[in-house]
Design brief:
single chain, about 180 residues, mainly alpha, binds zinc ion, membrane, Metal-dependent hydrolase, transmembrane helix, transmembrane
Length: about 180
């Protein structure tokens, strides 16, 4: 999946908790902003293992090293890399209300959503739950689409973008006029 599809899809899903807790978040706009920064960086991070990805091209040395040593859609595409940090950040965040934990929480959630989104594409992420599951699949192969081809660019991406625009509009209205 391309970076732009990852970003929009992750934000669409990542906004859902904001709607659930919107009455509590109305005076905590700084927390919302930091959470969204975490989400967007986190959802681009896993493709650091692919030197042609948008993040990989920014850090070619690190990206090339990870790609050679562990390969693409392997370690950084493993959900278990993020879950411990997410639980820790959630626990510490609710205890201390420090913004850095909200950032980590958003980052890990964004990365996990990236992995699930990659599962919608042809190549899938069979390593997503290793060593617990040796072959992780969400959709059968015939229901998945090819990265950066017609379906993703002209159907999936526009629909998800539209949902995101509606979500942002609703959320901004709620924050401003309540
Ligand atoms: Zn990926």
């Amino acid at each position: 999946m391309t970076a732009k599809s990852h970003l929009t899809t992750t934000l669409v899903v990542g906004f859902i908790p904001l709607f659930i807790f919107k009455n509590d978040l109305i005076h905590l706009v700084d927390y919302v902003a930091v959470y969204l920064i975490g989400l967007t960086t986190g959802t681009l991070f896993p493709d650091i293992d692919e030197s042609r990805s948008s993040i990989g091209r920014k850090v070619p040395l690190i990206s090339g090293f990870i790609n050679k040593t562990v390969g693409h859609r392997n370690l950084t595409h493993n959900i278990f890399l993020y879950i411990p940090f997410m639980i820790y950040a959630y626990y510490m965040g609710t205890q201390t209300y420090k913004l850095e934990y909200i950032l980590i929480l958003g980052f890990c959630f964004g990365a996990i959503l990236h992995i699930l989104e990659d599962c919608l594409t042809n190549s899938g992420v069979s390593n997503a739950m290793k060593p617990l599951l040796s072959n992780f699949v969400i959709l059968g192969k015939k229901y998945r689409f090819k990265t950066n081809e017609r379906f993703e660019n002209y159907v999936f991406y526009p629909i998800v973008s539209l949902i995101l625009i509606v979500e942002i509009d609703l959320f901004v209205h709620f924050i401003l006029f309540n």
